[in-house]
Design goal:
It is a single chain. By secondary structure, the protein is α/β, with parallel strands linked by helices. It folds into three domains: about 90 residues, ACT domain (Alpha-Beta Plaits, 2-Layer Sandwich); about 90 residues, Alpha-Beta Plaits, CATH 3.30.70.260; about 210 residues, HAD superfamily/HAD-like (Rossmann fold), CATH 3.40.50.1000. It has a seven-stranded mixed β-sheet with strand order 12-11-10-9-13-14-15, sandwiched between helices. Strand 10, helix 11 and strand 11 form a beta-alpha-beta unit. Helix 4 packs antiparallel against helix 5 and helix 7 runs antiparallel to helix 8. About 35% of the residues are buried. The model has no long low-confidence stretch (mean pLDDT about 90).
């Protein structure tokens, strides 16, 4: 009769340990049912669930493993597992899996404890924890820091809405971001990222900058803020704001375009996405003149935005063609995905304003980036503590795999 044994090995990591240990088990025709290994600060933790083919060989196997591990100056623990417990463990593999991502400038035990308590309260079980951010220097500090861990959790949350609200409260209290998403095949097969432009891909609201040059800054800013908060219709707000720009010299457009400031992490994010074969797009309620400037600067594949009319070297105060509002953004996301041969589950949308919500809702992964409160509450995911390159963590890319490696970008 076969025996199932859980073997746990710990101690200072040594080259060749796994090879030599497996060699011993192979001599007794031992089967490996599960295996996992982690090394933290040169300290190894290795776990193996093995099946010893018959009871007669159990004692020799354990004796040889024990002698070998002690000879290496390490510790080993053997735990028998009953067939009933093993079968229950196998059945648990059918439960849904979720990925929880904790992001911030730094991560503390308190952060993890708060998140773990919410996970436990929702009858979920943590199966795996990995660090996605690079190794943190002891004395490194500052705004450019990035810290991220990813937890793989199995089970069905008791109440997704309540869990999200608890995570939002923790995020606000501790200045961290907490994202959770189902671990589906689409999470590992996303191929299109669509960005809002103003206050997302770039730090400015371009129309406010243009308004300052036109001497109507305060009037335009008030309408912009009301639109971003969802207090007035975007089309109406755009009409009012653009009308105030009438007569602005065309040369100001180039001046403003050359002075645009990219959001923290934007270049690193897009370089990495291109390396991994993603397509990228700007879908903006701003102006195509500036979208095309960013397209050339960053190598973005698509740009869709409002066309500001210019005649005789002056802004007329009108927009040409269809207005890119919230519904139009969602429509463009669908169209670009279809052109690329993708389903919506393979898309990511990123934005900060109320007019971004329609595309955030239909994308496979919708991310409210440094968003207004109403948007953060409505979006499925939000990111506020890190730069745009924090999005890489949400799709499972480690710092060591990103373009630029472990260095902040």
């Amino acid at each position: 009769m076969s025996e199932i044994i859980l073997i746990n090995v710990s101690g200072q990591d040594k080259p060749g340990l796994t090879s030599s240990l497996m060699g011993i088990l192979a001599e007794y025709n031992v089967g490996v049912l599960d295996i996992g290994q982690a090394v933290i600060h040169e300290t190894l933790s290795l776990g193996m669930l093995v099946k010893v083919p018959d009871q007669a060989t159990l004692s020799p196997v354990l004796k040889d493993v024990l002698f070998h591990i002690h000879h290496q100056g390490m510790q080993v623990r053997f735990t028998p597992v009953s067939e009933e417990d093993y079968d229950a463990w196998v059945q648990g593999a059918g439960k849904p899996r979720y990925i929880f991502t904790l992001l911030g400038r730094r991560i503390t035990a308190d952060h993890i404890a708060r998140i773990a308590s919410v996970i436990t309260a929702n009858d979920l079980n943590i199966e795996d924890i990995v660090r996605l951010s690079g190794r943190e220097p002891l004395y490194k500090s500052g705004k450019a820091n990035r810290a991220c861990i990813e937890l793989t959790v199995r089970g069905q949350p008791l109440d997704l809405d309540v869990m999200k609200q608890r995570f939002l409260e923790i995020s606000q209290q501790f200045d961290v971001d907490i994202a959770f998403q189902e671990d589906s095949v689409y999470r590992r097969n996303r191929r299109l990222v669509v960005f809002d432009m103003d206050s997302t891909l770039i730090q400015q609201e371009v129309i406010d900058v243009l308004a300052a040059h036109a001497g109507v800054g305060e009037e335009v800013s008030r309408v912009t803020e009301a639109a971003m908060q969802g207090e007035i219709d975007f089309r109406e707000s755009l009409r009012r704001r653009v009308a105030l720009l009438q007569g602005l010299d065309e040369s100001v457009l180039q001046q403003v375009a050359e002075g645009l400031s990219l959001t923290e992490g934007a270049e690193r994010l897009i370089r990495t996405l291109k390396t991994f074969g993603f397509r990228t797009a700007i879908v903006s309620g701003g102006f195509s003149y500036f979208g095309r400037h960013l397209q050339e600067r960053l190598g973005v594949d698509y740009v869709h935005a409002n066309e500001l009319e210019v005649l005789d070297g002056r802004v007329t105060g009108k927009v040409i063609g269809p207005v890119v509002d919230g519904e139009r953004k969602a429509e463009l996301l669908r169209r670009i995905a279809a052109d690329e041969g993708l389903v919506l589950e393979q898309t990511i949308a990123v934005g900060d304003g109320a007019n971004d919500l329609p595309m955030l809702r239909i994308a496979g992964l919708g991310i409210a980036f440094r968003a207004k409160p109403v948007v953060k509450r409505s979006a499925r995911q939000s990111l506020s503590t890190l730069g745009l390159d924090g999005i890489l963590y949400l799709i499972g890319i480690k710092d060591a795999e990103a373009v630029g490696g472990d260095q902040p970008g």
